Every structure is written in C-alpha cells, then in structure tokens.
Prior knowledge:
Elements (H helix, E strand, L loop, with lengths): L4 H12 L3 H28 L2 H8 L4 H38 L10 H12 L5 H28 L8 H10 L1
Helix pairs in contact: 1-2, 2-4, 3-4, 4-5, 4-6, 5-6
Amino acid sequence: MPFPGLLLLLTIMSLVGRGVPQIIVVLGVTGGIGGSRVIRGAVIGVKENVYFQAAEAIGSTKWRILIRHVLPNIAAPVIIIFTINVGGVIISEAALSFLGFGLPISVPSWGGMLSREGREFMEVAPRLALWPGLCLTIVVYCLNMFGDAVRDLLDPRLRGGGGRLGAAAARSV
C-alpha cells in the first residue's frame, strides 16, 4: 500500500514482460489484494451476529452457514468492490498499454490507440485522442453505476422499499 499503484505495476510488468497472460495475472493479483481486506472485515462482522452463532449452535454445516448467512450479508461490499476493481483494472491496462508496458501491438487496446499512432496525429486531429478516452470514461462510469444498482437490488438490508430504487418506485406510484 505505500507504493504508488502505477509504479508497482510498471515494475512488475517490466519483470514479467508484455503479453495478454502476463497482464491478466499481474492485474488480477494486484487488483484483488485491496478488496480482500474489506471482505474479510465484513465476514468477521457477520460472524459476530446472533443468527450466525445460532446456526452454529443448532449444528448447521459450514457450507449452509456460508451460503445462507454469510454470502447474502456480504453481497453488497463484494459487488461494489468487484465493479470498482474492474473499472480500475480497465484504467490500469489502458495506462500500461499507453506507456508501452501492457498489451502487444497486435492486440487492440484503448491505451494503445492513444499511444502508438495516436501520438503522431494528436496535434493535427485532437479528436483521435478524444474518442478512446471518452469510451474508456463511459465504460468505467457505467460499470460503477451498474454495480451500485445491482447492490441496491440484492442487498437484504434494503429490502422492503429502502434504497434509491425503492424510493423511486414509491414516488412513481
């Protein structure tokens, strides 16, 4: 955590080399570490609840407790962390490809579009940099909004009319 993310990614990618499998592994491992602490904290919070201890007391199996009690109650942070991490991975891949450490030239990438041929023509036609950057921004924003909407729909604490979507439905009636 004390190292800047892009600097750490550049260092790791320079060690493992360019390529699709390398970037999948590097971005997957580095993107999953931060979210695991939040999920661990949420699971520890669920374990302290009375219904969890009651399920253990009546002899429920660990898998039943996990599926019935833990997963529904940590679904909201998992969904939000996943969608934010996917957006961050997309931006990280574009940044690595822009700097020449990401995907090979033969693989299309928004960062590669801005880097290689895009730099030659950016002064002549700035719109060539606008469209890949705008697409990147829209995709990451849509992923974050989709994750927020799915979280609102699936969070058991928001059932019964709570949340933004429930309030909007109540106003339209």
